[in-house]
Amino acid sequence: MKKIKEKKLRQKAHILKNTAFMLRCAFKCSPLSVLIIYFSYIAENVYYAVVINVMFLETALSVIEGNGTFKEFVIRMLIIVLGKILVDLIGYIDVYTVRVKFQIKCESYLNSLIFKKAQEVELGCYENPEFFDNYNRATWVIDRDGFKRIIEGSAWTLGSLASLITLVAYLVSIDPVLIVFVLCPVVVVVFKILKNNLELEKEKDMTPFERQKDYIRRTILLKDFAKEIKTTNIFVVLEKRFRKAIEGNIVVIKKYGWKIALLEFFADYFAEIIPVTGGFVYGCYRLMVVGDIPVSEFSVLVSAITTCRNKINHLAYYFAMQQKHCLWVQNLRDFLEYEPKIQSGDIIPESFQKLEFKNVSFRYKDDSPYIIKNLSFIIEKGQTVAVVGHNGAGKTTLSKLLMRFYDVTDGEILYNGINIKEYDLQKYRERFASVFQDYRVFAMTVAENVLTEEVSDENREIAVNALKMAGAYKKIDKLANKENSLLTKEFDSEGVLLSGGETQKVTIARLFARDFDIAVLDEPSSALDPVAESKMYDALLEGTKGKTVIYISHRLSSATRSDNIIVFNEGVMVEQGTHDELMEKKGVYSEMFTLQASGYKEVCEGEE
Predict the structure, then answer these.
(1) Which residues, listed in sequence order, are joined to residue 347 by a DSSP beta bridge?
(2) Res. 604: pLDDT tops 50
(3) Number of structural domains the chain divides into
(4) Could you tell me the CA-to-CA distances from 185 to 301, 309, 310, 362 in Å, in that order?
């Protein structure tokens, strides 16, 4: 029982706190728009509920019964007409000028908050399905017009409340007993809240299935997967997964459907039958039995009760909807309030001198095996270091630790003798230039992809020179718009689709376009043939003179050009030294190099 009470208190707090959160966001976007929207809804509600349904009806019936003067009738009608003009004018201004711009501004503001948080969270979040479910739920506020619904819902609620108070005051002045029938629909709010809680649980249970369906829809339409889908039977597997996700949704709907239907039935009963029937019968009793009210007052009483019923039902509906939408907002707030595990320090890193891995071990989860075990080595300024080993040996994990995408489980990484956790995270990463194994290009121009920032006349030449150093400019120069050519066909049918090798060269060009202390290249030649790979490494050696370079690869072309080679095997450093030293040892490195060298020789002979 205590837990249920605590849950209800949290739900109430969610409505108040989350509505307040959205209002703060709205005021940051456009305070005047918020005031106009609220004033518009309040004016409209009060006018139609009080002025039309009570004042106008009472005036018309008074004329029929011969009560009042013509002058009083004209004055009341003028007030009604002027009120109509004012309400409509405010409404038109709100709908056609204020609300459209306001919604765009609010959506833009919320998206910026989500984008900023997505940039802050650690890499591990992107490898966690639960994170993606939370992220999807966080975007409901925008995808489902939640912002608009909450602001308009709260404005309409306030307007309905203002008109309801006026109507209740009028009815109580006639007969205090009438309040019993008027407030009966308040029970509807309870049923609506229970219904919304069930719907939220239903949507939460459906999220994993919806994400699977969305993934399959995107996969089937993406060019990256088109060849595999057309040449294999994977489509059958995808289709079965899609049907399975639909079946999962059906199970969830069956689980909650009958409960939601039952709650909706009781809500409608208390909302419609009791207040209207009860109020009408009591009014007839006063008119026909007691005889203490005239026909005009009876008609106005019935109209007021019906209007109160409608307003309370609207309040129940909007309160329930507000609760549902505020639970969407809670998902957003939970996402925005997430504290990244990778926290920035305060120290600004100075020019690089030395990097040290000191007894470093790492595993992704507490119950998972170690990927890296007790790793220790030192990299001095200006050194070229190759980290080599078979696939799955832990090489890429080393680069993730170095860039602080993850923090070490045990040990420490020292930059100039200071633990990297103590450095300002952004400033620390700015000391590095990286080329990742799973490289990507954006649906932007070649120059924007290289510079990874806006292109200007001042930095355009930097992009061109970087493309030349990466060996990519020969291809780019043949394009119609050269470095201004748009990559991919995401937004333009005239967009350029580069080969895997050319795409990798463009991503390598990013390195040459940056000012850095340390270059980290994770499988930088994975899409290149042996000749192109050799040329790329020659260019890298030329372009990184005086810099510190860390090559991470299972292909050993980089190793022969390195000052130091670190050999990984199952997360452990098994060998270290120069190429000649390791070849003399005839260990793991020597065996790998001999096998790869024979493979390269066969490829070159085949090309001849």
Answers:
(1) 423
(2) no
(3) 1
(4) 17, 7, 9, 60
Question: What three-state secondary structure class fits 365?
Answer: coil
Which residue has better confidence, 608 or 521?
521
**Pairing, β 372-380 against β 354-362:** antiparallel
**Nearest in space to 109 (alpha carbons), one of 214, 31, 203:** 31
Tell me the C-alpha to C-alpha distance, in Å, between residue 83 and each of 86, 88, 160, 252, 438. 5, 8, 17, 50, 65
Residues ≥6 apart with Cβ < 8 Å to 285 = none
Which of 420, 429, 423 is closest to 518 using CA atoms?
429
Instruction: Give Cα separations from 71 to 22, 61, 68, 74, 82 (angstroms).
Output: 48, 15, 8, 5, 16
pTM attached to this predicted model: 0.66
Span 162-166, average pLDDT = 82
Strands of 354-362's sheet, edge to edge? Answer: 372-380, 354-362, 410-415, 418-419
For β-strands 548-553 and 564-569, DSSP reports them as unpaired
Q: Inform me whether the pLDDT recorded for 128 exceeds 90.
A: no
- Among candidate residues 383, 360, 411, 349, the one with its CA nearest the CA of residue 519: 383
The C-alpha angle with vertex 203 and arms to 198 and 204, in degrees rounded to 5, equals 95
**513 phi and psi angles, rounded to 5 deg:** -90, -5
67-74 CB contacts, 8 Å cutoff, 24+ apart: 67/296
**Is 1 domain-assigned?**
no
Distance CA 505, CA 532 (A): 10
Closest among 276, 528, 459 to 537, alpha carbons compared: 528
Residue 5: inside a domain, yes or no?
no
pLDDT at res. 353 = 92
pLDDT confidence of residue 417: 92
d(CA 599, CA 6): 68
- For residue 231, the enclosing domain spans 15-336
Dmax of the chain from CA atoms? 119
| Residue at 305: amino acid letter | I
Q: Is 128 exposed, middle or buried (0-12, 13-18, 19+ CB in 10 A)?
A: middle
> What's the average model confidence in pLDDT over 165-178?
78
Q: Please check whether residue 347 is in contact with residue 422, taking contact to mean a CB–CB distance below 8 angstroms.
A: yes
Residue 309 belongs to domain with CATH number: 1.20.1560.10
Residue 561 lies in a domain: no
The DSSP line for 455-472 is --TTTHHHHHHHHHHTT-
Q: Which has more confidence, 460 or 534?
A: 460
Give me the count of residues in the chain. 608
Instruction: Give domain status of residue 245, yes or no.
Output: yes
Q: Which residues make Cβ contacts (< 8 Å) with residue 254, sequence separation at least 6?
A: none
| pLDDT value, residue 414 | 95
Q: How confident is the model at residue 472 (pLDDT cuts 50, 70, 90)?
A: confident
DSSP category for residue 355: E
Position 68 scores a pLDDT of 65
